[in-house]
Every structure is written in structure tokens, then in C-alpha cells.
Design a protein that fits this description.
Structural class of chain A: mainly alpha
Strand order of the largest sheet of chain A: 1-4
Largest interface: A-B, 26 and 30 residues
CATH topology of chain B: Rossmann fold
Structural class of chain B: alpha/beta
CATH superfamily of chain B: P-loop containing nucleotide triphosphate hydrolases
Number of strands of chain A: 4
Number of strands of chain B: 10
Largest sheet of chain B: 6 strands, mixed
Number of helices of chain B: 11
Strand order of the largest sheet of chain B: 6-7-8-3-9-10
Helix content of chain A: over 70%
Distance between the termini of chain B: 47 Å
Shape of chain A: globular
Order of helices and strands of chain A: HHHHHHHHHEEEHHHEHHHHHHH
Number of helices of chain A: 19
Largest sheet of chain A: 2 strands, antiparallel
Helix content of chain B: 25-40%
Order of helices and strands of chain B: EEEHEEHEHHHHEHEHEEHHH
Oligomer: heterodimer
Low-confidence stretches of chain A: none
Mean pLDDT of chain B: 88
CATH class of chain B: Alpha Beta
């Protein structure tokens, strides 16, 4: 037991314990409203995982993940709008604009199977195409960030202006739609969606873990740290970046779909500029380059946001800005990085409670020192 | 047949000629040293061979085929490896992982995701770790290594890549005398199986290599020959020490 509680082990299993707790205990304890909020924030964790893949691991700061998030949301919302309509009937909003027949690109969304694939394949393909063109021309750093934000604005304006195609600025409502005969906005359905979100979040986490642990992940880190060097070793970074950007797009699409059904609506606001920047802040605060940090960052910040907004509606933006400054100035590796580097111990030491150590632990672990110790002991035995 | 041939290569940066009608031949298995004062175009010369810089004029021929216009990773896969002037290892990865990225084999995303290292590749990594004496540090981030260890790790990465032609830019900068001597031995061992081209400032080191020397000056080959020949060449002395008239002026 003492071994389990040693700080090294604690650091390893505590984040996992938190996740299990979230999945098992909270649905019982929390009222439906809070549970629904948590489900939404967990689904935002999935898009944050994607941001972490491309930014934390590969070093590409995308400010346009909202595109792929919204595409996934729209794909699912379109299916739900069509679901359980009588033959010949159209989704309600079409009548407002005098549209008499279903636009052609809506047709495939009659199929649930197509929709399930489209939710992640459409964003992945869009991201892959956009990424390939950008990466092939070796556009990096700030230019890449600006380009993704510009793309985001293009998509936002397009979706916002197309009343006759996708209800423009009003978006598509899903809370009043039905699936399996049940209203999506109902408490029972929302609890099921929460479970689904937990399962998919864990699956997304494991996918990202598989991608980042191993030589593929090493190559991503190498691209982040020294891309030209990797080229001279025979690697084509364009291929890696395209793959990882497409994966992040797919994750964003899945995230958007889950978020949509739990918020009850998808609208062009999902492609608003601040929202995509917030995704980056979640990852920065949680700890970029650590998957668990991305997840925790998304959930914690959004929960804090909803709590603060309920109590002091006007102050959240200041707090969020302050958090970002704090992370940039004091916690460059985010909360998880701070935790892993023994931050809590240092904090306690700062208030006059230094941690007890028998010796200099860093010295004990230094391989050079250990080697010299070995040598000294061996030669010392001869002399003594 | 020559392994590498530079034919009248000229590189112009906005009118400044970093390389000026440079001609050079390397035979397979050769060990060659390239020296020259600062600004002679040594690094640009490597940039041209490895595809980072496109020559304004002239051609680079490797194994009988022109490689001008090919991208860096293509050229690397053809069998040209490069070690950089300042050690460039991946700081956040351990020496073992650095070597596992460099080791020869398929380098596509699918191969890295779904394939694993063959036992042969694994042995090669292990062997190289012991050759450069980094077995004890194999699992720690390479950013914590000393300068000399990083230099050696990068040389090991180059060897892991197993290229036919090794381009080595200042391998002994910042190394101790003992490390320098070991590096010279290592490079001499590699020559024969591989073709090695070394750029260096350290004259003692070049003498240790016992290799033919090419002197670059203002982007042009000034002269070629053994170390003794080159050192006694009045043109070389003039380039390195300045002509008498210049000294008078100073």
C-alpha cells in the first residue's frame, strides 16, 4: 500500500483513477443537467486530443479545428433532421425559404451507415487535402496558423450564408429530433449519450496513445523539434503531417457530432474564431505533448467556464485570458507537465514545508554517477 | 566510375557567388578531406549535394545519375547521409530512439505505424550504442548529453543510416584530443566500405586522417593533394594567412 502511494506511482495512476471515477460514479451522483454538461465537455476532450496530436507532438498550431468539428456536427444533424420523416416530407426549415425538394447533397444522409462514416471521413478528407497542399509547399509556423484561421473564416461565412441549403446562421436543431423512437433531448437519451461519449473518448485516447508511443510518434516529435534534420535522414515530413492532420480532423468530426447531439444544435457558431482558439488554450493549460493533459484541460476549463459563468457572467473571458498568461509564463508544460515535474511538492515547499529526502535523488539516478560509483567500489576494494 | 561528381556547380545568392564553377570527383571507398577558410562555401557545397540548395548552374551526379532538383529525402534514400556542423540530435528523444529513427529501412508512415524493427535493425542500434559508449544513457533524453556525446550520437545516427556516401561537417568541433583521435579512427574504419567526405578546420585531425585534401576558396577548388603538398602550396598559404600586401595594409 505504501508502495502504491509513493509519489512516483501516484503520479502514474491518479489520472487514470480520475477517469474511471468520472465514468462510473458521476452519472449516479450528478443531476441530469450537470451530467449533460460533463458529456459535452468530454466530447470536447476528443477534439483537444487532435489538437494535441498536431500541435503538442508535431508542432503545427492549427487555429481552424472548428471546421472539422462543425463538419462532423452537421453530418450527424442532417441525418437526424431526415430521420423518421414521412416520405415526401422535408425538414421544417426548408419551407421558410420556399425550398420544395431536398438538395442533392442531403440525399446520402438518409442512410445511417453513410452518416456514421461521414462523421469522421468527411472532416478527415477535407483536413487531409488542405494539409497536403499546405505541407507540400513547406508552409510552417505562423503562416500555417494564419492559413488555418483564414480557412476557418471561409467555412464560417459559407455556412452562415446558405439558408436554403443548411439553414444558414440558425443552424440545425437536434434536440427535438428522434432516434429509435426516443426524443434526443430526453434525460434517458442524454445519459446514454454520456456513456457513448465516455467510451469513444477512451477509444480516441487509446488511438492517440498508439500513434504517439512508438517510432511513428518519435517521427512526429522529430518533425516538431527539427524537421529539416529528419528530411536528410530519408523521411518525407509531408506524408507524416498530412496523416496526422487528417487524424486530428477525424477526431474533431467525431467530437463535433457528440457535442452536437448533447447540446441540441449545430450552427456556424461552431466555426467562430474564438472557439477554435479556445481549443488550443485547453491543450496548453492541460499540458501539450501529454494526451491526458489535453483531455483534462478540455474538461476542467469548460467546467470552470460554466461554473464561473453561472456565478459571475461577465468575468469568464478575463479568467480564461489570465489562465493562458499563467500557463505561458509559469507553466510552459501545462498542469500535467507541472504535476509530473514535481510541482505540487515545490508548491508545498514554498509555504515552508520542504519535502523530506534522504539524499539527492537526481544524483542517485544519474547513470554516469552510478557507473562511477561501481568503478570506485571495484577499485576501492583492491586498494583497501 | 566516380561515385559523386560535381560539374561546374555555381550557386548564386542574389548575385553573391557562394560556389563558383566548382568541380570535384569522389571515387567509391575514398576518404576525402575538404578545408577552406571561413566563407569558402564548404557548407553550401554540402547543401547542394544533399538537395537543400539548388545550383544556379552545373550538375551533381551521383552513381551516374543527376540528382539536381530532387528533394532531400529522395537524395538521402539514394544513399547520401549528412552530419551537421552543430550536433543535431532530437533532444527530446533518447539516444536509442534517435538511432531507431535513423536506422536504415522503410521510412513511410505506414511502415513506422504497422511495422516493427527487425532483429537485425535492433542489433545494429545496440551495436552502435556500444560503439559510441552511450549504452548507459540509452534511455534518457538526448538533450542531457554532453557536447561530445551528442557529436558521437550524430555520427552513430549517420552510420545507422548506412549511406554509401557520408558527408561529415566538422565532426570534431568542441571535442577533446582523445575524442578527436577516436573520431579519426572511426572515420578511417568507415572509409573503404563507404565513401567519406569530411569538412574540418582542425589541421591536426586532417593530418590524422591521412587523406587527400581539397582546398576550397571563394566557392572554387583552389588545389588538391596530400596534406603536406597542400600546406606548402603558396596559394594556400596566401589564402589562409593573407598576402603580404594585405598584411602591410593592416
Amino acid at each position: 500500500m505504501a508502495d502504491l502511494l509513493s509519489s512516483r506511482n501516484l503520479r502514474r495512476w491518479l489520472p487514470w483513477a480520475l477517469i474511471v471515477l468520472v465514468a462510473l460514479v458521476l452519472p449516479v451522483v450528478l443531476p441530469p443537467f450537470r451530467l449533460n454538461l460533463l458529456g459535452r465537455f468530454l466530447s470536447l476532450g476528443i477534439v483537444a486530443l487532435g489538437v494535441d496530436l498536431i500541435w503538442g507532438y508535431t508542432g503545427m498550431l492549427s487555429l481552424g479545428q472548428g471546421i472539422f468539428f462543425a463538419l462532423g456536427g452537421y453530418a450527424l444533424a442532417m441525418y437526424l433532421q431526415l430521420n423518421e420523416l414521412k416520405p415526401g416530407e422535408l425538414p421544417e426549415f426548408f419551407s421558410l425559404y420556399g425550398v420544395k425538394s431536398l438538395p442533392a447533397f442531403w440525399q446520402p444522409f438518409n442512410s445511417p451507415l453513410f452518416t456514421l462514416v461521414a462523421i469522421w471521413v468527411i472532416p478527415a478528407v477535407v483536413a487531409g487535402l488542405l494539409g497536403y497542399l499546405v505541407f507540400r509547399n513547406r508552409i510552417k509556423g505562423v503562416y500555417f496558423s494564419i492559413l488555418t484561421q483564414a480557412a476557418l473564416l471561409v467555412f464560417f461565412n459559407f455556412f452562415n450564408g446558405q439558408q436554403k441549403l443548411i439553414n444558414g446562421t440558425n443552424g440545425l436543431k437536434t434536440s427535438t429530433a428522434r432516434i429509435f423512437g426516443e426524443l434526443i433531448g430526453s434525460d434517458a437519451m442524454q445519459r446514454n449519450l454520456f456513456w457513448l461519449t465516455v467510451v469513444i473518448t477512451v477509444a480516441a485516447f487509446l488511438l492517440c496513445r498508439w500513434l504517439t508511443h512508438g517510432r511513428f510518434g518519435d517521427a512526429l516529435i522529430a518533425i516538431r523539434d527539427d524537421e529539416p534534420r529528419l528530411r536528410f535522414t530519408g523521411y518525407n515530413p509531408t506524408a507524416y503531417k498530412t496523416v496526422v492532420f487528417a487524424v486530428a480532423g477525424a477526431l474533431a468530426g467525431i467530437s463535433g457530432a457528440l457535442y452536437t447531439v448533447q447540446s441540441g444544435i449545430v450552427s456556424p457558431q461552431y466555426m467562430a474564431v474564438p472557439f477554435s482558439i479556445e481549443m488550443v488554450i485547453w491543450v496548453a493549460v492541460g499540458g501539450r505533448g501529454t494526451l491526458i493533459g489535453a483531455l483534462l484541460g478540455a474538461v476542467l476549463i469548460n467546467y470552470a467556464k460554466s461554473l464561473v459563468s453561472e456565478a459571475l457572467p461577465e468575468t469568464w473571458l478575463f479568467i480564461q485570458g489570465g489562465l493562458f498568461l499563467l500557463v505561458v509564463l509559469v507553466l510552459p508544460d501545462g498542469l500535467v507537465g507541472w504535476w509530473r515535474q514535481g510541482g505540487p511538492g515545490r508548491l508545498i515547499a514554498m509555504v515552508g514545508w520542504p519535502p523530506r529526502t534522504a539524499t539527492y535523488p537526481a544524483l542517485d539516478l544519474d547513470p554516469q554517477v552510478v557507473a562511477e560509483q561501481d568503478q570506485l567500489e571495484r577499485s576501492g576494494g583492491g586498494q583497501g | 566510375m566516380n561515385l559523386l561528381e560535381l560539374q561546374g556547380v555555381t550557386v548564386s545568392f542574389d548575385g553573391f557567388l557562394a560556389l563558383n564553377d566548382l568541380n570535384l570527383q569522389l571515387a567509391p571507398g575514398e576518404l576525402r578531406a575538404v578545408i577552406g577558410p571561413n566563407g569558402a562555401g564548404k557548407t553550401t557545397f554540402l547543401d547542394v549535394i544533399t538537395g537543400k540548395v539548388k545550383p544556379t548552374r552545373g550538375d551533381v551526379v551521383f552513381r551516374g545519375r543527376s540528382i539536381v532538383g530532387r528533394s532531400e529525402h529522395h537524395i538521402s534514400r539514394l544513399g547520401i547521409g549528412r552530419k551537421f556542423q552543430t550536433p543535431r540530435v532530437y533532444q527530446n528523444l533518447s539516444p536509442r530512439r534517435n538511432l531507431e529513427l535513423a536506422v536504415r529501412g522503410p521510412h513511410g508512415p505506414a511502415a513506422l505505424l504497422f511495422g516493427s524493427l527487425s532483429s537485425e535493425q535492433r542489433d545494429r542500434v545496440q551495436h552502435l550504442l556500444s560503439v559510441v559508449g552511450l549504452e548507459r544513457q540509452a534511455q534518457q533524453p538526448a538533450g542531457g548529453l554532453s557536447h561530445g556525446q551528442k557529436q558521437w550520437l550524430e555520427i552513430a545516427m549517420l552510420v545507422a543510416q548506412d549511406p554509401e556516401l557520408l558527408l561529415v561537417d566538422e565532426p570534431v568541433a568542441g571535442l577533446t584530443d582523445e575524442e578527436t583521435a577516436r573520431t579519426a579512427d572511426l572515420l578511417k574504419q568507415l572509409a573503404g566500405d563507404h565513401t567519406v567526405l569530411v569538412i574540418e578546420h582542425d589541421m591536426e585531425f586532417i593530418r590524422d586522417l591521412q587523406a587527400p585534401v581539397t582546398v576550397l576558396h571563394e566557392g572554387h577548388v583552389l588545389c588538391e593533394g596530400s596534406m603536406d603538398q597542400v600546406q606548402n602550396d603558396p596559394r594556400v598559404i596566401e589564402v589562409y594567412l593573407g598576402s603580404e600586401t594585405q598584411e602591410d595594409a593592416a
